[in-house]
Amino acid sequence: MACNAYPHQTKTIQVYICLYTAFLVYLDDMFDNDIEAVKEFNHRFITRQTQRQEVLNHFAALLLDMPAIFGTVSANLMTTSTLNLVTALSLEYELKGVKVRIFFLPDGTLNR
Predict the structure, then answer these.
(1) What are the DSSP calls for 53-94, one per residue?
(2) Quick one: pLDDT at residue 94?
(3) Are 23 and 62 in contact (CB under 8 A)?
(4) Which of 29, 35, 37, 75 has the fewest CB atoms within 10 Å around its CB?
(5) Is the pLDDT of residue 101 over 90?
(6) Does the global pTM surpass 0.70?
(7) CA 87 – CA 83 distance, rounded (Å)
(8) Tens of pLDDT along 59-83?
(9) For the packed helices 54-64 and 11-29, what is the interaxial angle rounded to 10 degrees?
(10) How far is CA 55 from the centre of its chain?
(11) CA distance 33 to 89
(12) pLDDT of residue 66
């Protein structure tokens, strides 16, 4: 995928994006195995603690390499976006099974 989507980039960036994408897919698949590791990832990353799973240690190390590959400002944006994604995965798991009910009035307006 990285080679096809980023042929204009260096091999280093292509490999980085390949690994980054694989880690994100892995995180998404961790729901049934160890959601606690996903929920704790951001805090452990920010405080430089060891992650609950070795694979997540490698993901954290990959994120720390971003500035060397993409530059400081781009890496900051990418890192915060990644941490937001991890939070979103945790929320998705927490809200699994929650039903939202929206009620409309007979005139079609939303009942608040």
Answers:
(1) SHHHHHHHHHHHTHHHHH-HHHHHHHHHHHHHHHHHHHHHHH
(2) 84
(3) yes
(4) 29
(5) no
(6) yes
(7) 6
(8) 999 999 999 999 999 999 999 999 9
(9) 140
(10) 14
(11) 14
(12) 96
Q: 18-30 pLDDT, tens per residue?
A: 999 999 999 888 8
41 and 86 in contact (C-beta within 8 Å)? yes
Considering only CA atoms, which of 11, 25, 35, 19 is closest in space to residue 95? 35
The identity of residue 8, as a single letter, is H
Is 62 within 8 Å of 16 (Cβ atoms)?
yes
CA distance 40 to 56: 10
What CA–CA distance (Å, rounded) separates 51 from 60?
A: 8
Structure tokens at 96: 């699994």
Judge contact between 52 and 40, C-beta under 8 A.
yes
The confidence score (pLDDT) of residue 8 equals 84
C-alpha to C-alpha distance for 83 and 77, rounded to whole angstroms: 10
